[in-house]
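Hi everyone, sorry if this is the wrong subforum. Our group has a chain we'd like a structural model of before ordering constructs, and none of us has done structure prediction before. Sequence below.
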Amino acid sequence: MPATTALRRTLAVMAALPLLTLAACGYGSQAEDDDSAKVAAGAKKIDGLDSVRIGYFGNLTHGTALVGHQKGLFQKELGATRAKYAVFNAGPSEIEALNSGSIDIGFIGPSPSVNGYTKSGGKNLRIISGSASGGVSLVVNPDRIKSLKDVKGKRIATPQLGNTQDVAFLNWVAEQGWKVDAQSGKGDVTVVRSDNKVTPDAFKAGSVDGAWVPEPTAAKLVAQGGKVLLDEATLWPDEKFVITNIIVRQQFLKDHPKAVEAVLKASVEANRWINANPDEAKAVANKQLEADSGKALPAEVLDPAWKSIRFIDDPLAATLDSQAEHAVKAGLLEQPDLDGIYDLTLLNKVLKAAGEPAVDDAGLGVK
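Answer:
Right subforum, don't worry. Here is the predicted structure as tokens:
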């Protein structure tokens, strides 16, 4: 990476996006702190903390957090320090919660991670682990789009201007030789920024011809008659790319390394259990989704969505660097300096203790 580069502007739209309605933690909705009842007798607080506040999305791509919450794994590792949770719908609001100190640790996608790091001049967050890869597809109306070349001239939804899937789709469009203005979404393809909660209705109504979206939205579209035209994993080396990271406030990492290590132990254990028990794991994740949102996913959505996600501890740092470059090419991001965005020291300590190989930061770790 180059020496420190002046960041003239980051994802401008991210800075302008409104936060979620204020809720219990200040930015996201508060999940039930039911793990607090499972504190073992005689357990002690870690680093003298009363609680550790953990943020995640109500998405299957955040399955590590869903399973870790539902099974009480975070609480188990934190002892008498209570695990508290906040559920978010968008990356910008979770980054704001982290920046304000409303949460301590969060599960989040690569684009918000890059944006949050660069906006603070590299002073506020660190990526401390991976969590998941994959789980993103281009799903289309098969009556309107029968091949990849048919995407030209059509209306394709992405979740949000400048978000991880939006950047990926814009990069794919550019690789086809097509032109699209990133800000307006107008060009050889019309990019429609649509919240994942709204996209299935828009697809059903015919106002969009397809969508480049994460799970479970992709599976919901398939259940409505859509067809997976492209799995984003096929565009990446070894079909792996980061979709979910674990981030932490730098000050919290400095002041409470034992608490951070405890959360990472729980995350590694959650992923190990998920991979050893995939059918039970998807049911557990779905149970937590129901607890958080009041509605579980039906089997026709849950089953294919879960199969498309790989739960891994490796943050796949090289792919995050590539995703940042894609945002630069799209004109959404000035060349960022990502040196120091990772600190995988505690993760590799946990992996070593578990008999697992160390993971790499692609040269973007703290020096």
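For your construct planning: The longest helix spans residues 257-276. The chain has 14 helices and twelve strands.
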